[in-house]
Amino acid sequence: MRRDFGGALANQVARRLVIPPHRDGGQSQFVERPVHAHARHGLSPLLDQLQRTLERTHTIPDLARRAHMSERTFIRQFKAATGSPPGQWLTAQRLQAARDLLERSDLPMDAIAGRCGLGTATTFRHHFGKWLGTSPATYRRRFRLPG
Q1: Three-state secondary structure of 45-104
Q2: Which of 28, 49, 51, 57 is the most exposed place for a label (fewest CB within 10 A)?
Q3: Within 13 A of 109's CA, how many CA atoms are on the CB side?
Q4: Distance between CA atoms of residues 112 and 118, nearest Å
Q5: pLDDT at 52
C-alpha cells in the first residue's frame, strides 16, 4: 500500500485496521479517530471549536457557559455525545493532533506540545506514553511520512 498509494494513506489504513504499518512486534495499537455520536448533537459547534483551539486552556465552567448549560448537565451531555468526559476527550484530540504533527513535520517535541495544548515536552511524553504505550520519538520513527 505504501509503494502504490503513499505513506499517508498507508498509515491511515494501518490505524483504521488497528495494525502498525511496519510490524516489529510488541507495539501498541493506534486507532486514528474513534467515531462518536456527536455528529448531530447540539454540542457539535463547541466540539468543532475545541478541535480548532487545542492549544488553549479549556475549563469545565467556561465550556458549560459556552454551551448554555450548568456544569453537571454539560458534563453529562458531553459524555453522552462523545463517549468520554471532557478532559479525557480533549486529551485524546490533543494526542491525535500531536500524532499528525509527528507524522508530517520535523517540529521538536516542545513545539508539538505547545501547538497541541499539551504544555511541555515532558507532559507531552507522559500523556503519549500513558495513552499510546510508546514514546513520541518511537511513534515518529514508525509513522513518519517520507518527503
Answers
A1: HHHHHHHHCCCCCCCHHHHHHHCCCCHHHHHHHHHHHHCCCHHHHHHHHHHHHHHHHHHH
A2: 57
A3: 15
A4: 8
A5: 95
In angstroms, rounded to a whole number, what is the distance separating the alpha carbons of residues 106 and 62?
A: 34
Length of the chain: 147
Mapped onto helix, strand or coil, the DSSP state of residue 72 is: helix
pLDDT digits (tens, 9 = 90+) for 110-144: 999 999 999 999 999 999 999 999 999 999 999 88
Cell of 101: 504533527
Q: How far is CA 131 from the centre of its chain?
A: 10
Confirm if 13 and 2 have CB atoms less than 8 A apart.
Answer: no
94 falls within a domain: no
Q: Tell me which residue range forms the domain holding 44.
A: 38-83
Summarised one tens digit per residue, pLDDT across range 18-43 is 555 544 445 455 445 444 444 446 89
Number of domains in the chain: 1
pTM above 0.85, yes or no: no
**Residue-wise pLDDT tens digits, 41-76:** 689 999 999 999 999 999 999 999 999 999 999 999
Q: Does a structural domain hold residue 8? A: no
SS3 118: coil
